[in-house]
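Honest question from a wet-lab person: if I give you the sequences of every part of a complex, can you actually get the arrangement of the whole thing, not just the pieces? Trying it with mine:
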Amino acid sequence: MDKIDVGRKILSANEIFALKNRQLLARSGKPCFNLISSPGSGKTTLLVRTITDLKDALRVGVIEGDLQTDIDAERIRATKAPAIQINTEGACHLSAAQVNQALAKLPVEGLDVVFIENVGNLVCPSAFELGEDGKIVVLSVAEGDDKPVKYPAIFAKSKVLLVNKIDLLEGARVDFDLDRVRADARRLNKTIEIFPVSAKTGEGMQNWYDWLTGQIRSR
Amino acid sequence: MDKIDVGRKILSANEIFALKNRQLLARSGKPCFNLISSPGSGKTTLLVRTITDLKDALRVGVIEGDLQTDIDAERIRATKAPAIQINTEGACHLSAAQVNQALAKLPVEGLDVVFIENVGNLVCPSAFELGEDGKIVVLSVAEGDDKPVKYPAIFAKSKVLLVNKIDLLEGARVDFDLDRVRADARRLNKTIEIFPVSAKTGEGMQNWYDWLTGQIRSR
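Yes, you can. This is the full assembly:
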């Protein structure tokens, strides 16, 4: 029997919800970024500092994904930004359906940008579109400089790489070759933007803020 | 229709291979530990230092799990210990079938202990038994002290928690409350052994070596 090409891709349940999220965000004209990293790379601290430093310029909403607890949403709410916590109860990544429910609870119309902080995991979240405009991968210098070659998918798919905790490079407290990370990440992804930052001391954060506000202004 | 209890649990494919691995290791009397952590917590560095410091007392073999590359197996082989690399090609954890193939290639009879270094991921590997005698979770102080409450499964299931990179606590370079981690881990797991160590400076490693050699002697 000949194969019949029905001419359309059959979407998975996750892709259907990702498309819904993308349409919802596009209608309201709000950019949305999906933050992905290992546990403990400093995603929440990065968001807290970004929200605080840009509080007069940007209204930020956050969707927080964690296996358990609402520790991270509480940290975001302490800045007065709205945050919706999703507990995945053991699942290793956020799904587009979960994000769809959370978007319904966020006051999207009153915001300038939505961040999704995914479950801390450098592997699984890279395979699930959530309807975001771009993925942002965060790598702490304490994790070592071999991560782009060992976990290539997320570096290949991200718009931005935030190399965090660069304060730990001072006095060579951790062994980390930033040039190696740049070269390996660019080999996987020619257009990736790379910003070395310390969310703790503020070093380098202005470059990230300039990129972020540029993304919002260009819409 | 009444339900019929066939009186036995149906094993998954993974559980069947885990049982095979357990039987193989039990026959040869070799203990086997499954190291699990986030990417970049220092599992390979811990193994390299353990193998080097105990080279006159213990013959160690290693099964290395990574999405890509054989960087970690090469680091182990540089110590002269045998290492078998498994590339999961994107999968977020090792399977018992992969470990079964690797065990066939390791010279198990000539070893005192087998370590499996799982894919860097604090979530997925905790759900897949590999036939090991125990899981060992590694947490770098740079990841923060909220990880036991945020990723409880692996802390609940592990025999040992190695709190690594304690050299970074000096001068308060990272914010990390070891007492909080101890309390949260023990709340999840009353019998977990907790060893604060620095695989870089060697601090605290003797306590880990004493535990490890005790496990081997007691068989």
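Two things worth pointing out. Residues 13-217 of chain B form a domain with the Rossmann fold fold (CATH 3.40.50.300). Chain B touches chain A through 34 residues (CB under 8 Å).
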